[in-house]
Amino acid sequence: GGSIAIRGRLLWFDADPAEEGEGQAVRYVADGLVVVDNGIIRQVGEASVLLPRLRSETPVVDHRPHLVMPGFIDPHLHMPQTQVIASYGTELMEWLAKYTFPEENRYGDPAVAADGSRFLIDELLASGTTTAGVYCTTHPESVDAFFTEAARRSLRMVAGKVMMDRGAPPALLDTAEIGYQQSKALIRKWHGKGRLDYAITPRFAPTSSDVQLEACEALAVEHPELHIQTHLSENAAEIAFVREAFPWSKDYTEVYERFGLVRPKALFGHCIHLSERERAALAGKGATAVFCPTSNLFLGSGLFDLAAARAAGIKVGLATDIGGGTSYSMLRTAAEAYKVLALQGQKLPAFDAFHMLTAGNAAAMGLDNRIGRIAPGLEADLVVLDTGSTSALRRRMGRVETLEEELFALMTLGDERATVATYAHGHRVYDRSATRAKPLPP
Length: 442
Ligand code: GUN
Ligand code: FE
Hints:
The protein has helices at residues 17-20, 22-25, 47-50, 92-104, 110-126, 140-152, 176-190, 210-222, 236-245, 252-258, 276-284, 293-298, 306-312, 330-342, 350-364, 391-397, 403-413, 432-437, and strands spanning 3-13, 26-37, 40-46, 60-70, 72-78, 129-135, 157-160, 162-163, 196-202, 227-232, 266-270, 288-291, 315-318, 382-385, 419-424, 427-431. The protein is α/β, with parallel strands linked by helices. The protein binds guanine and fe (iii) ion.
């Protein structure tokens, strides 16, 4: 509750700079003010215009000379993988079997799930990420733990129980019927509570039988408003496995199409090795492909072809994929996206990158009516960024002349140390100076 006004260099995107051009898309107010009331943005504009009209009791937080942007959005990550990140030497299928499944098996313990959720959310907020698309584990307790922690910080979050009825250790499996019932109960318990949304979450085709995918279809039909999240076409061995397991399907994407899982607000992680037919199917059905560059590099999965996805008309998100991914920071993620595209002769201008981290990811998740821009009526999720947070950045800034150059240096050299403060629903949920002042543990 209550009011607050935040002053700084405001930056957000009213359109996609790749489509509309910078002039239409980029909104920058060098000395701006955001007025927030009960968690909602009420006014945005020049500080010189808005300050004299502000109610005297409204506190003003002056973040000048720092940038104030919409909170970053991370459309694909795994809550139970904070202790899998940086596991050595494997690619996808072996990485799952050797490191990830044994670790996820611990998350049936509510204390483990609570600890993992607290750590993850601390890390996201310190990186300026205020919304994420989150995979929990097959255990309903892991979803309870994550949503409990997200609600405690008043965050907008999308999460779901992983459904997986084969191809993993028995203790981690549900069944088509149990997965359906547990998902139903979690939807009733959590979906639409505060800012929490439930996502139907079959892990990926290799770990679901036809019968389980039919159960997912039933959930999807019964809940057309829900997100769906899964993985698609990440790795050659995975694709070969799907070809064997679903001999009736002409390609990987058709498996999900057959069960009604390709639709708006369906988020497909990776989408690296798609055919033109598959791209057209995703685009035609309004689904989203999620580019996870640090994960794709770390697991050696391949290079996401952004130009082909855009040409096909697919909505694209950009995500960390913790813990296949190697950084919680969306700045690091944008930097690695730039390099993945550079290897393919493609470009990622800074304005496009910051659009993707904010309004672009909001649209990719179907949440653009709530978050992703600094505009009246939207929820007050904001990140305050210091473009001189390290000596390397400060040194580079000495020769930077334009906002675009400044942003490109920020994404290329920056990380969580650039986060000065993070606001969610108008509350300050991260404060760098408070973190720094904390005494060291004994
Ligand atoms: N495919 C199925 N499960 C996973 C996962 O946990 N991480 C990644 N990167 N890919 C997957
Ligand atoms: Fe993933």
